[in-house]
Each structure stands twice: as C-alpha cells, then as structure tokens.
Specification:
Layout (H helix, E strand, L loop, with lengths): L3 H9 L9 H10 L5 E8 L3 E8 L2 E8 L11 H23 L7 E5 L2 E5 L19 H17 L2 E2 L8 E4 L2 E4 L6 E2 L7 H23 L8 H12 L7
Helix pairs in contact: 4-5, 5-6
Length: about 240
Amino acid sequence: MLDKSVQWRIDSGSMRFEEPGYRTTVEGILATGLATEVVGLLSAGKEADVYLTRYHGGPLAVKVYRLYRTSHRGGRPVKLDRMSWLAAYEFELLRMAWKGGARVPTPAKRVENMLAMRYLGDEDRAAPRLQDVRLDDPEPALAAIVDGVVQMAVAGVVHGDLSAFNILLYRGEPWFIDLPDGFRVDRLGAAPWRRLQQASDLLTRGLTAVNVYFRKYGLSIEVDGTVARIVERLDRRGVLK
C-alpha cells in the first residue's frame, strides 16, 4: 500500500520516523502539488489535521493524516503504511459518494497520507459543524440529513461515524465529512448478507446519534424503520429475505 516515494525513502534510509512539524507539513503539501499556497491550519482532529490551502487561487482543504501522533498501532513503515491507506480509503469513499450525488467535499487528489478536497466555507471562516449551530428551522435540516444518508448508501457508502460533529452546514445544506471509518456496501470478499448487516448496524448507530442532536428541538426519526427501508434498497438480490 505504500506509495513508491515512501518506499524509496525507507529503502534509502532518508525517511525520518517522527511526526512532521507545521513547516515540514506545509513543505510536503506544496512539494507534492496538492496546493500552490498554504493559508493555515483549519482544524486538528484525533487522527488528522486539515489545512486551508489554495491551488492557483482556488481554495482547497487538505487533510493530513498524522503519522505517529495517532491512536493506530504500528511503528515506522507500518505506521506510514496504515495512515497512507486511511487517506486512500477516505479518498475513494468520497469519490464514490460524490459520484452518487451525496453532499460530500469533492475529492481532488491524494498523495501518501494527504488528500485534497473542496473547501466548504467562505473567506472569513470554514462552514460550521452542525453541533455548533442553533437551527432556526430544524425540520428541513433533519429531512436533508436523512436524504443524504440514503444517497450515500445507494452510492455504496455508509458513514462509519455519523454525528452532529461530522456534518457541516454550508449554504443552508448539510454536508458530510470525515469518512475514514466508512463502510463500502459493495465491497467484495464478504458474504452479501454480512455486508448488509454491517451496513444496518452502522446506519442504526449513525441515525441514533443524529436523533441525539435533534432531541433538543423535539424532533426525531424512526431509526429502525428508516434503516430497514435503506437496507431493503441495498438488498437488490433479496438476500435478507
């Protein structure tokens, strides 16, 4: 899974096995051609940092998975391999969801443990998380989120960590971010019934988390029925019947 450039640096002994600092990360973003300018750090998560950048003037968000300061096990090349795999996996899930019409940041390019995507926000600030917003009209927002979950699932993607923390509000619409824990419903190598059951479990957990947020508005969705309808659409061969 290692990119050839990473493997070459490991073999040649030029790879540094320590967490890159801000300056080194910026140099890496520019050197790999993901952006032509780095504006600054947008957010810092548990496993990755997101930078606001520009590519020939156009804004982009670049997500950089940390190599060592993470919860994932492994060391040195193993760690590099794991984080590069996560970046590649999230890039592919974004591509699938985007092609299916779901509101996710459009993926642009992936190199090693970094991926560039559409920036959601304006010049003043990034789009806020749903968790940080007080909605004036929450009912359409809840309906749009459910529609987005259905669109992603039909495209073959189930969000693995859906909550108000991983939904952005941009131009009045919910957008889904942070897909490294997502699940590919179309993934080969497992029995269809097992994939559908995994999808059902993740959908149930995610929609329950959405209900927790909307509880303060006195709103909720019927999780079991909604999940059953989505899984029925995914079960094109009638496996679960």
